[in-house]
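Final report, results section. Input specification for complex C-07:
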Amino acid sequence: MKEFINYLTRFRESFLLFILVIISFALMTTSDSAIKKGLEASNLYIIASIQKSITSIGGYFGLYEENIALKLENTYLSYENYTLQDALLENIRLKKLLQFKYELDAEIIPAKVIGFSPTDVVTGVLLSTEDYKKISLNSAVITTDGLVGKIVKMAGQYAVCQILYDANSRVSVRIQRNRELGILASDGNNALYLKNIPNTIKIVQGDVLFTSGFSQIYPPNIKVGVITSAKINEERLFQDIQVSPSVNFNSLEEVFIIQVHESNEQ
Amino acid sequence: MNSDSKYAVILTAVFGISAVILQLTLTPLIEINGWHPDFVIVIILFLGKRFESISGSLAGFFLGIIQDSLSPLPLGISALSKSIIGYAAGKTERFRFEGILYYLWFLFLIFLNELIFYFFFQFKTTLSFDTLLFSRVFPNTLYTTLILFFAVNFIGKYFNEDN
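Structure output:
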C-alpha cells in the first residue's frame, strides 16, 4: 500500500490529469444529469445578472415600459399583417374556395435583449423577461420585422435565444409567391441559404419567405427573410439560394417570445 | 494551504472568472467572420506556467466546467481540453522555453486546445471536422495567440515568479 501511495505521489500530476479527464468524459456522457442542469442554471443566472446590470443603465424614466407596451402592440399588428398578406395571396389562388383561420392563438411575451449568447457555440442573444414562467424551451422568438430564432436554454428570468445565423439553426419555410417549401439554414458564417428547392422551380430575387408551420417550433406565417440570389447548379438537384433575414440581428433590443397554447401546438 | 497555493486560487478566481465574463461579453463584439479568441485559455496558460501542472490542470478543469455550463454542449467538453492544456502549460518551466520558443509552445497548446474541443464539437453539429479545422481551429488559434501577445504585456507581470 505504501509503495502504491509513493507511486501516486511520484506521478501525482499525471494521476490528477487522468482523474480530471475521466471526470470530463463521465460528465460528457451524462449530459442530462441533475448536476449539469443545476450548474447550467446557476451559472447562466449569475452571468445574465451581470450582463443585465451592465445593460440596464439605458432603461430609465418609465420610457422602457412604455416602449415595451408599444412594441408589443406593434408585434401583434405585424403578425396580423403577415397573416393577412398571406391570406390575401391564398384567397386569390384558391378563389375563395376554402376558408382559413388566421387568428394568432398564442401568447406573445416581451423580453429584453441584455447581451450576446453566453457561449461561443451558440450564435444568439441573451434575453431577460419578467414572464419567464410562461415560456418554454424551443419557443419561437420574433420582432416586428420577423423571425429571430428560438429559445435553447433557460435559467430563471434569463434565456438564450439561438438566432437564424447559428450553424445548427434550421427553419421550415415557404416561399410566399409560389408556396414552395424549403429549409432555411446558415453556414455558420453570417450567411443564410434556402435549401431543398429543386432546379425546376422558378425563383425570383425578392421572393419573401415565411415560416411554413410544419415544425413543432415555429408557428406559420412569420416573416423570415427575402431571397437575394438564386443560382441553378446543373450538377446538383437543388438550387443555391441566398437569403437576407428580415431581422437586423445587430440592432436587437426587445424581442417577443411566442408561447403557443398547449392545446393548439402542432 | 501554503501561500503559493493561495495565490494560485486568488489568481484563478480573479483572472479566470474575469476571462470567462470577458469571453461572454467582449468576444461577440470582436468576432470576425465567426472567428473568436479564447481569453480563458490564455489565463490557463499563464496559471499553468506560473504554478505548474497540478494548478494548471485544476484551473483548466474548473474554468472549463464554468464555460461548459453556459453552453448547450455536453458538460466536460471544454473542461477536458483545458485540463490537458493546463497540465501541458505546467511543463513550460521544465522545458525552459524562452523567447520565440515560449510563444511557439503556447501557440501549439492553443492549437491543441482548439483541436480537442472541435474534435468533440463535431459530434454535436452538422459541420464536418475538416470544415471546422479550417473555419474555426486555425483562425481561432491565431486570434487567441494575438490576444496572448497583448496579455503578456498587460497582465503577464501578475504571473511572474517574483509575485
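The radius of gyration of chain A is 23 Å. Confidence is low (pLDDT under 50) at residues 96-102 of chain A. This concludes the modelling results for the funded period.
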